[in-house]
Specification:
Elements: H1 2-22, E1 40-44, E2 57-62, E3 66-68, H2 71-74, E4 76-78, E5 86-90, E6 93-97, E7 107-113, E8 116-118, E9 128-133, E10 141-149, E11 160-165, E12 180-183, E13 189-195, E14 199-205, E15 220-222, E16 227-228, E17 230-241, E18 247-259, E19 263-267, E20 277-284, E21 287-292, E22 301-305, E23 326-330, E24 336-341, H3 344-347, E25 352-361, E26 368-377, H4 383-406, E27 422-423, E28 429-430, E29 436-440, E30 444-447, E31 452-458, E32 461-464, E33 467-471, E34 476-481, E35 488-493, E36 498-500, E37 509-515, E38 522-529, E39 535-541, E40 545-551, E41 556-562, E42 565-573, E43 595-597, E44 602-604, E45 609-615, H5 641-653
Parallel strand pairs: 10-19, 28-37, 38-45
Antiparallel strand pairs: 1-2, 2-6, 3-8, 4-7, 5-6, 7-9, 10-13, 11-12, 11-14, 14-15, 14-16, 17-18, 20-21, 21-24, 22-25, 23-24, 25-26, 27-29, 29-34, 30-36, 31-32, 31-35, 33-34, 35-37, 38-41, 39-40, 39-42, 42-43, 42-44
Length: 654
């Protein structure tokens, strides 16, 4: 009996040892973590096999159980398939079933990226691409690089990158699937593999509909120049490890270096040029707003008809149309236009009929043409409702007046007149390079600048000083002065100096403020190298927030009166001179306006001048954006098994 017991114990011990060897690395603290990635031990057909024109299924067998991480994002087949293949994983096997028939004399690649990992510790197989050919030869060239957002230089994850033959027309990108494709990883990197020697044009595409060519509304990128594939033998160096924490040597590993490997594509979204009248909204009787889907240089024409008549308002003595009953307020891109009705007879019509002539786009040809619509505009807040609410307010005030009289209170017998609402600056201190901005919710019909006063305040003494008042559009004005640092000022606006479209006038207004002290601000002087007169330089804070913007002048960009703190610099080449960054347009073969970041953080100190020299061509695109502004960071990756073992060893020593 004792012998049988010993034999059973021995068998149990042996079994435990075998299980331990079969599944090494369970972590704290069943031993070190398994650092070995899965090994490919079998393939059907073999990698690089030729003349497999009727292949329907690829099977890969590994040394241990595996899993696929985000296969829909990471795995891509090239040339692209019209019908998506079916990818399955079962223990040690990964199978790819091809649904499409294969093209003759073509190299096919299945790029798994780093999707294949062991099922226990998640050790990645590494960047793995399986390939075969339906012809006699296998194409082995590669084109690699990165895709970044054209405006922010942030990596663009999951965008397709593909090739056409160099002789392909521009229209091919809008009609025919890319010939070879890859997808960018989380850092925007890509590698298009299985490419034949030759010259190519490269594109990037956020393929929303899965047809592998560009449709309007999809993010895109392209290069104007062609690429030529090439390769040469090269050596890379890797670390050879004794165990999980000790390295033995640096190994020199020969490999084939494929070119080009440094392509940078700047992706952008086009601004839609398809112009239609999206909606016409009349919130209140005295104005309505036209919303368009795209900008236009054309100024729409309006004819307004009184209820029950066919006589347009706004004609001169010769019968020519003039818009005397409107004030037009257009936004910067002319796709939102507000019409303020200055004729009280027109505004009194709750049912307002207009003929609206404007520019729109043909859906099929994308050509612009002029059209006219007849529109009936009913205000959401009707004249009848406004009169009813006013009557209710009058009755309420009258009842309150009667109650006061019963108490013997005969003060304030006249109902207060509603003042014109004016939004005044809410500031305690004002930088010397800024001015006071006032705004209204309705157009200013009269502005008596003689009623606007500026005083320099020393102790309790106020001294009048010169000022300028400038209108800023229909509904705003600015008060300007010769500001002196660390001085106090007062702006007073007399009552009834401002009259709005509603006929209301302002009550007396006062704004007290001081000019920023010199020790509370600093200056930044930037000497630019490699920039022309189109350069616009922006001073940024965290989050790409623009604090100030100046146009380069004589090779320099100067920023005055900057609050102390940490800042960054960004520059764009303003090709059309509108002082804002503009996206590209594929139909015009126009790239988005070029953006450059100064690669370092800048510290501004109070009462101090900071000088820097910035050569905008000295830092490669992918290295420009400072870490303090980057949204995509490497730090988000998972800890590797090797790093876990180092941490485990440290804890054991402690």
């Amino acid at each position: 009996m004792r012998g049988h017991t010993f034999l059973g114990a021995s068998l149990l011990l042996t079994l435990l040892c075998l299980l331990s060897c079969a599944n090494p690395g369970s972590g704290p603290d069943g031993g070190p973590y398994d650092e070995e990635p899965p090994r490919l031990v079998g393939m059907q057909p073999e990698i690089g096999e030729t003349d497999v024109a009727k292949l329907k299924k690829v099977v890969l067998v590994f040394s241990e159980n595996v899993k696929l991480e985000n296969p829909s994002e990471k795995i891509i087949i090239s040339p692209p398939q019209e019908e998506m293949p079916e990818i399955k994983v079962s223990e040690r096997r990964v199978s790819v079933e091809l649904m499409d028939s294969l093209k003759p004399d073509m190299t096919y690649t299945i790029d798994f990226s780093d999707a294949i990992k062991d099922a226990t510790e998640g050790n990645p197989l590494g960047q793995f691409t399986y390939y075969f050919s339906t012809g006699e030869n296998v194409d082995t060239m590669e084109v690699a690089g990165s895709v970044v957002d054209a405006q922010t230089l942030e990596p663009v994850k999951g965008i397709l990158v593909g090739l056409y033959d160099a002789e392909a027309p521009d229209s091919m990108f809008t009609t025919t699937a890319l010939s070879r494709v890859a997808r960018t990883d989380e850092m925007g990197r890509f590698s298009v593999k299985g490419v034949a020697r030759g010259k190519y044009r490269i594109y990037a595409l956020k393929d929303m509909d899965g047809n592998f060519f560009w449709n309007r509304g999809e993010q895109l990128a392209f290069l104007d120049e062609t690429l030529t594939t090439d390769c040469f033998p090269d050596i890379r160096y890797d670390t050879a490890w004794v165990d999980s924490v000790r390295w033995d040597s640096i190994a020199a590993i020969p490999y084939t270096h494929y070119l080009p490997d440094d392509v940078v594509l700047r992706a952008f979204n086009e601004v839609s040029t398809n112009r239609t009248l999206m909606k016409m909204v009349r919130e209140v009787p005295n104005h309505f707003v036209a919303y368009f889907t795209a900008p236009s240089a054309h100024v729409p024409q309006v004819e307004v008809f009184a209820e029950g008549t066919a006589q347009p308002y706004g004609t001169d003595e010769f019968g020519e149309r003039v818009r005397t009953c409107f004030l037009e307020e257009r936004n910067e891109t002319n796709d939102t236009i507000t019409y303020w009705i200055t004729d009280s007879v027109v505004a009194a019509n709750d049912s307002l009929k207009i003929l609206y002539t404007y520019e729109m786009t043909n859906d099929s040809t994308f050509e612009r043409f002029i059209t006219t619509d007849t529109l009936d505009l009913m205000p959401r807040m009707t004249n009848a409702r406004i009169m009813k609410e006013r009557k209710q307010a009058d009755e309420k005030w009258q009842k309150q007046l009667e109650k006061r009289h019963k108490r013997g209170d005969y003060d304030h017998d006249e109902r207060p007149v509603e003042p014109l609402a004016v939004t005044t600056p809410r500031i305690a201190t004002l930088p010397p390079d800024q001015n006071l901005a006032y705004s209204l919710a309705e157009p200013i019909m009269r502005l008596d600048t003689a009623g606007i006063h500026l005083f320099l305040k020393v102790d309790s003494i106020e001294t009048p000083v010169p000022r300028r008042v400038l209108m800023d559009g229909l509904r705003a004005f600015t008060v300007m002065g010769e500001w002196r640092p660390d001085q106090k000022y007062v702006v007073r606006i007399d009552s009834a100096s401002i009259e709005g479209l509603s006929g209301l006038v302002n009550k007396p207004l006062q704004t007290d403020f001081a000019i920023t002290k010199a020790e509370d601000v600093g200056s930044l002087f930037v000497a630019l190298q490699g920039a022309d007169t189109t350069a616009v330089v922006q001073l940024l804070q965290a989050g790409d927030k623009v604090v100030k913007q100046v146009r380069a002048n004589a090779g320099s960009a100067d920023f005055f009166y900057v609050k102390p703190g940490e800042y960054y610099l960004k520059l764009f080449l303003d090709e059309n001179g509108n002082s804002r960054w503009d996206t590209g347009n594929y139909g015009e073969r126009r790239q988005a306006e070029h953006v450059v970041y100064y690669p370092e953080q800048i510290t501004i100190r109070g009462d101090w001048d900071t000088d820097i020299t910035w050569n905008i061509q000295s830092t490669p695109t992918l290295q420009q954006k400072p870490s303090g502004l980057r949204k995509t960071k490497q730090a988000g990756r998972q800890q590797t098994a090797h790093e876990k073992n180092i941490e485990r060893e440290r804890k054991l020593r402690d």
